[in-house]
């Protein structure tokens, strides 16, 4: 730290006195005193630019919006898809009146979402890109191992990595398994999902 006093003659009319210059690596401040012919003394302070830069705030990240609810009968459509949620429920079996084959969950129950879907273009987009990021919330736990099936005649087939011809409606089942207690207890069961890039939540009970 140093104290320096210097006088300069400026245009024969005014003296400038620079006093008490305190220098440090970061945040140094310089005081400049100016005395003019009329006897008025002015003092100004010049802050180090690094000190002001350090006070700048980083831009905040916007929060992601909560998913919007969707119920049985609601539809979501784009220029590529039309998707309708037709049902959402918990059951001991995965079945359809169009097939004599049914599925039973091992030591548990199914949480099932049913959709009517229709591709509107010939872009060959797999259905699991239209309905994705499925996560079920139940009793403080998250279940994300979902499967997808549809019926071809009476035959159950996987809908994952499957595209459908344009303008032909298809009924699909999106489901996962839960503990057997989920069918009778009073705990809420809800699925968060992304349908056509829209974040949605479906309450089963």
Question: What characteristics describe this protein?
Answer:
205 residues; globular; 17 strands; mainly beta; 5% helix; single chain; disordered N terminus
Task: Give a concise summary.
Helices cover about 5% and strands about 50% of the residues. With about 200 residues, the protein is mostly beta strands.
Topology record:
Elements: E1 6-10, E2 14-22, E3 29-35, E4 41-47, H1 49-54, E5 68-69, E6 75-77, E7 81-91, E8 93-94, E9 103-104, E10 108-119, H2 127-130, E11 131-138, E12 141-143, E13 147-152, E14 155-158, E15 170-179, E16 189-195, E17 198-203
Parallel strand pairs: 5-17
Antiparallel strand pairs: 1-2, 2-3, 3-4, 6-7, 7-10, 8-9, 10-15, 11-12, 11-16, 13-14, 13-15, 16-17
Low-confidence stretches: 1-36, 38-55
Helicity, in percent? under 10%
What does the main sheet amount to? 6 strands, antiparallel
Rg, Cα atoms, Å: 35 Å
Mean pLDDT, all residues: 80
Q: Helices and strands: which structural class?
A: mainly beta
Strand composition percent: over 45%
N-to-C span: 73 Å
Q: What's the overall geometry?
A: globular
């Amino acid at each position: 730290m140093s104290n320096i006093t210097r006088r300069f003659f400026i245009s024969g009319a005014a003296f400038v006195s620079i006093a008490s210059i305190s220098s440090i690596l970061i945040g140094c401040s310089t005081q400049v005193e100016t005395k003019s012919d009329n006897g008025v003394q002015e003092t100004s302070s010049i802050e180090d630019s690094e000190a002001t830069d350090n006070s700048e705030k980083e831009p905040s990240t916007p929060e992601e919006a909560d998913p919007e609810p969707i119920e049985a009968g609601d539809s979501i459509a784009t220029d590529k898809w039309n998707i309708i949620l037709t049902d959402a429920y918990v059951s001991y079996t995965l079945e359809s009146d169009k097939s004599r084959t049914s599925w039973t969950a091992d030591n548990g129950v199914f949480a099932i979402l049913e959709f009517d879907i229709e591709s509107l273009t010939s872009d060959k987009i797999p259905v699991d890109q239209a309905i994705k990021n499925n996560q079920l919330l139940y009793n403080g736990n998250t279940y994300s191992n979902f499967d997808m099936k549809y019926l071809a005649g009476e035959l159950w087939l996987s809908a994952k990595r499957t595209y459908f011809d344009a303008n032909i409606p298809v009924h699909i089942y999106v489901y996962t398994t839960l503990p057997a207690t989920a069918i009778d207890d009073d705990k809420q069961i809800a699925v968060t999902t992304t349908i056509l890039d829209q974040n949605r939540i479906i309450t089963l009970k």
